[in-house]
Each structure stands twice: as C-alpha cells, then as structure tokens.
TrEMBL record:
PANTHER family: PROTEIN ARGININE N-METHYLTRANSFERASE, PROTEIN ARGININE N-METHYLTRANSFERASE 3. Residues 320-483 form the Protein arginine N-methyltransferase domain. GO terms for cellular component: nucleus. Transmembrane segments: none annotated. It is found in: Nucleus. The keyword Repeat does not apply. GO terms for molecular function: histone methyltransferase activity; protein-arginine N-methyltransferase activity. Keywords: Metal-binding, Methyltransferase, Nucleus, S-adenosyl-L-methionine, Transferase, Zinc. This is Uncharacterized protein. GO terms for biological process: methylation. The keyword Repeat does not apply.
Length: 497
C-alpha cells in the first residue's frame, strides 16, 4: 500500500482501517517503538510482563508465571485490523496479496501450498492470522499459552481499550466494542467449546429434554458460535433466535447454514439490550453467561434484561440456578512466594506491592487436598426470579476445621443447575469436580490461621460491582475464628479486575 496514490482503492481501504481503528492505534499495531530491534522486542515481551500494562500485571500476579501477553495483545491489534478491513478486501478488489505494484507476496505451507503461491489478499491474511494464532497456541513456542487462552476466554480485553481510547480519532472503537471484539476470534470459542463439563452439561440439559423444547420459541443470549442455538433446534424448537454483539456471529451464520438450520435459527448481530426481536415473547432463554467467581463480567445482567423483556410468565431459563460456595485452604508455599516475597526484596521492603497482591483474587486450579475446612454455600441465585440489584449482596457463611492445620486463604467456586430437566443436570466448578476453565478463585487472608478439627470460622462475604468498572467485582470477607488454640478476626478487601 505504501506507494499508492491517494484516492485509489487501496488508499480507500487504508483510510477505512484507520477510521475503524484510529490512526494512533493503527500505528501502535504495526510500528515498533523508536530504536527497538524487532527480535529483541519480541524476545523481551515474550518473557516478561510489561508493568504498565494492566492485563500483564494482573495475569502475572494471578498466575505467578511469565507470560506472552504483550505478544497476544499485539496479535489482537492485528486481528482487529484484519476484521476491520476484511469486508472490503474481496477477491475482486484485492486478487493478489501485494504491497504496491512492485511487491507480491507468495504463500507457502507444508500442508496445502508446498510451492509458493499467489493468493487473494483476504485468503493470504486469513492463512497468516491462523498461522500466527497457531504459533501463539504452540506450547513449545510460547510455553505459557494456556494462561492466555483460558484467561482470555472470559475477561480479555478492556485493558487494550486503554490504548484505543488514547487515540483522538472520533470514530475509534470504544472499550465496549473492544469487550465484544474479545469474543470475535474463534480461539476463545474453541476454548469454551472444548470445556466439556460446560458444553456437555448444556447439551444434555437441552437435547435430553426434547419434551421441554418441542415447538418452543427459544432465545439464545450471547450465542457465540451458535452451539446452544443448534442444540435447541436439534431438540425440536419451533424457532431459535441467537443474539450476539461480537463479530463471531458472522461465523455463526455460516455455521447455522452449514448444518441445515437456516430456517430454524435466526441470528441477530447486536447488543441484547438494543436489538429488535422478531418475537415479542419467547418460551425459553438459554445462555452461558457465567464468569470467574460466577459474577465477574456481569453478563447475567444481560440475561435478566432479556428475561424481563421477553420471557413468558411460565417460561424457562437454562440454567435456572447457581450456587456460590466458600471453603478454607492450606496454601503456605505459594503464599510465601507471591505475598511474603514483597516483605524483603533483596533487603528492601515493598509493602505497597504486598498490599496490592493481597487485594487481588487469584484464579487458579486448587488441589482438593488443599482444603482444610468444611464448605458452605453462601449464595443461591434463582435465575428465574433474581433481580439485578440482588447481585450486590452480603451473605453469611460458617465453615469449620477438618483437622489440625494452617489456613492461608479462602476459595470460592460455583455450581450450576438445570433443574427443569427430566433428570436434573448439574455441574460444579469446585476443586473436587472435573476441571473447568473457570477454575477456582483464591482469596488470601493477611494472617495465617492455626486451626483444629471443628474450629468455627464465621463471617460474611460481600460482593458488588466496582463503581468505576461494573464488570469488575469488589469483594469483602469479614471473618472471625473461634479456635481451640487461636481466636482471630479480620476484614479482607479484594477487587477482581
Ligand atoms: C461466554 S460466551 C458464550 C458463547 C456461546 N453461547 C457458547 O456457549 O459457546 C458469551 C457470548 O455472549 C456475548 N455477549 C455478552 N454480552 C452480550 C450482550 N449484552 N449482547 C449481545 N451479546 C453479548 C459475547 O459476545 C459472547 O460471544
């Protein structure tokens, strides 16, 4: 594109991309910082989180390992650019991948193009993006790729929108757009679909209950690839409406056609809260809305909106019940490494970082033998009746020691129920259940608790959306240990962001 004249088709394409992304973002996506050597930049950013970057900081803290997030962020910028120009870049408009008349790019790969081949630009870039994505997901190239894939599944994103918002272009994407764009790439959906506990539970709840779905109008809130819509159509629904704001719905439209559901499933691109529905009422709402700590990401708000606006009085919601569970764990070694570390860093105190580390919940897999107390269901949510304001709550809990041990943290997980089913379908995200991408949420206490069998820990857990970013959660645990040997009380504040 470099040598083309203003006003040509290719310049038009570039102008379009710049308008969609903002000039500054486009530059950030394709230009190295001044004086940087490309290889050094990639090597450095592949190994160490960049501390100015909110997501890298968070991921490093959450997982306690080095990560490739800046590379992934860079990839996502390029992805956004690709999606922005994809529609204009038809085979007729750009029949060959080239940079001005002087340079043509030829594609070769070991599978389908053993010889360097001329390809239309769109196809070339598509293959290139897939190849980059494969590299990022290759554990031998980026050993920490699971961190990206499981994390990005749910949260991605708003951090990159900081960069986007720094641009001055009025037509820049907003953080809201970017949130949805985090769901645009198929990799995120691959991760969710491959979570078999999750996807098989929805499949069983829908397809083993054809008597509930037969001839019903079904709304799939946040349909993604359309998987739940296709389950519902296969279960005999009269018609399914799938709604998603993300560009993944363009793929879902092709998927629905490919599987012969074109006349049964209608997919609408847009925000659930803003789209116009072809039906005034629906009989069933299906949605996979759960985030870390169940409520992180706030997508349940959207389901409640759809329920209140479209669901008939006797209508069903799949799933219909969620419970949140708390327990205590022994986690001395990891806490020492991640929290106590800041007390003495080469002889210096870094208390402010210790405080920050304590206040951020860690999303991680907890081994079941780390549990040292009983567990307690502290919150039950009936999706059919809960109101948005109930999602900010304070709930009491009581747990007791299982043996003589030390306790370093609370963990929270959630369980999901489809109780209208002929045989109720249920799955747990707890440490004793099969792995899910939600893992568990660990909340460290400031002090280590010495507990004995039957020692009582009583308290309350408060959870509410963060004031400045409602997709984040403010969590407070207020507890009191009445032990044989120890009495202790504490208030711990956390933000899941
Ligand atoms: C967790 S994914 C689930 C995708 C799919 N249902 C599945 O089970 O694989 C949630 C989807 O909801 C979409 N979404 C979230 N909030 C939305 C809203 N307010 N309006 C439309 N789509 C939304 C996201 O773009 C994302 O594709």
């Amino acid at each position: 594109m470099l040598n083309d004249n203003r006003g040509s088709k290719k310049m038009g394409l570039r102008d379009f991309a710049e308008e969609a992304l903002g000039k500054e973002s486009l530059k950030y996506a394709v230009v190295l910082p001044e004086g940087e050597d490309l290889k050094e930049w990639i090597a450095y950013h592949s190994l160490e989180p960049e501390y100015d970057n909110k997501m890298c900081k968070m991921i490093a803290k959450l997982y306690g390992i080095k990560n490739n997030f800046v590379v992934v962020d860079f990839y996502n910028h390029i992805s956004v650019l690709f999606y922005a120009v994809e529609h204009q870049c038809t085979e007729e408009a750009c029949p060959v991948m080239s940079a001005s008349l002087r340079f043509q790019y030829l594609w070769t790969d070991s599978k389908n193009h053993p010889k360097p081949t001329k390809l239309p630009a769109r196809k070339y870039i598509g293959l290139l993006m897939n190849w980059i994505s494969e590299q990022i997901n290759d554990i031998y190239v980026f050993p920490t790729h699971q961190v990206f894939s499981s994390y990005s599944n749910r949260l991605f994103i708003e951090m990159s929108s900081d960069n986007m918002q720094a641009t001055t272009n009025k037509k820049q994407m907003s953080s809201k757009d970017y949130y949805f764009d985090s769901y645009a790439h198929f990799g995120i959906h691959e991760e969710m679909l491959k979570d078999q506990v999750r996807t098989n539970s929805y499949r069983d709840a829908i397809m083993k209950n054809k008597h509930l779905f037969k001839d019903k109008i079904v709304l799939d809130v946040g349909c993604g690839t359309g998987i739940l819509s296709m389950f519902a159509a296969s279960a005999g629904a009269k018609h399914v409406i799938g709604v998603d704001m993300s560009n993944i719905i363009d793929k879902a439209k092709l998927i629905v056609q490919e599987n012969g559901f074109g006349d049964k499933i209608t997919l609408l691109k847009g925000k659930m809260e803003e789209i116009e529905m072809p039906y005034k009422q629906v009989d069933i709402i299906i949605s996979e809305w759960m985030g870390y700590f169940l409520l992180y990401e706030s997508m349940l708000d959207t389901v409640l909106y759809a329920r209140d606006k479209y669901l008939t009085e006797e209508g069903l919601v799949f799933p219909d019940k969620a419970t949140m569970v708390i327990a205590g764990i022994e986690d001395g070694q990891y806490k020492e490494k991640k929290i106590a570390f800041w007390e003495n860093v080469y002889g210096f105190k870094m208390t402010c970082i210790k405080e920050a580390a304590l206040s951020e919940p860690l999303v991680d897999v907890v081994e079941s033998d780390a549990i040292v107390t009983s567990s307690c269901v502290f919150r039950e949510i009936d999706i059919k009746t809960v109101r948005k304001e109930d999602l900010a709550f304070t709930a009491p809990f009581k747990i007791s020691g299982l043996q003589k041990d030390y306790m370093h943290a609370f963990i929270v997980w959630f369980d999901i129920w489809f109780s209208y089913c002929h045989k109720p379908v249920y799955f747990s995200t707890g440490p004793k259940a099969e792995y899910t991408h939600w893992k568990q949420t660990v909340l460290y206490t400031r002090d280590t608790l010495t507990i004995s069998k039957n020692d009582q820990i009583e308290g309350t857990l408060t959870c509410k959306p963060n004031n400045s970013n409602p997709r984040d959660l403010d969590i407070t645990i207020d507890y009191k240990l009445e032990g044989k040997d120890t009495k202790h009380s504490e208030t711990c504040n956390y933000t899941l962001c």
